[in-house]
Amino acid sequence: MLHDNWGIKRGLMSTVHAATATQKTVDGPSSKDWRGGRGILENIIPSSTGAAKAVGKVIPELNKKLTGMAFRVPTSDVSVVDLTVELEKEADYADICKAMKAASEGELKGVLGYTDEKVVSTDFVGNTAPSTFDADAGIALDKTFIKVVAWYDNEYGYTCNMLRFVKHVAG
């Protein structure tokens, strides 16, 4: 959406990700990295993510223009993406919100959700949209430097997305 309408020069992405089954419940050894061995129940754990690289593979024009990291947090479900980008064309944050809302009701219905309510993570448990744009959580420094926020259910929602994909491939 952002890239199609305004172009993305570059960006940084952080995912605040709920705990997963692969994480330790108490401190212990990790073959991947030291932080990964720390207990998820009492820590916010900085971690790597392949999400930004994946965007570059799906949208080749954005390859090497995005990078990111994750923070693993002690919640059981629902994660959020914080994307900060420099746009190629100027845009008011209100116009970005309008475009996201229109897309969520039109060509991206069922794929992109939209909210302008004062939500928190548990409000998205069971949400089947791959991502829900949170208009109230984003900000803009100026007309080309913005932060957008999107929520997703990384358990049930992910499963629903895999089923959508299987149906699409089976066609």
UniProtKB/TrEMBL annotation:
Q: Domain Glyceraldehyde 3-phosphate dehydrogenase catalytic: where?
A: 1-152
List locations, semicolon-separated. Cytoplasm
Query: Which pathway or pathways does this protein act in?
Result: Carbohydrate degradation; glycolysis; pyruvate from D-glyceraldehyde 3-phosphate: step 1/5
GO terms assigned for molecular function: glyceraldehyde-3-phosphate dehydrogenase (NAD+) (phosphorylating) activity; nucleotide binding
Q: Provide the alphabetized UniProt keywords.
A: Cytoplasm, Glycolysis, NAD, Nucleotide-binding, Oxidoreductase
So what EC number does this one have?
A: 1.2.1.12
- One GO BP annotation of this record: glycolytic process
Entry's InterPro entries?
Answer: GlycerAld/Erythrose_P_DH (IPR020831), GlycerAld_3-P_DH_cat (IPR020829)
Catalytic activity, as annotated: D-glyceraldehyde 3-phosphate + phosphate + NAD(+) = (2R)-3-phospho-glyceroyl phosphate + NADH + H(+)
In the UniProt record, does the keyword Oxidoreductase occur? yes
Family according to the record = Belongs to the glyceraldehyde-3-phosphate dehydrogenase family.
Q: What is the protein named?
A: Glyceraldehyde-3-phosphate dehydrogenase
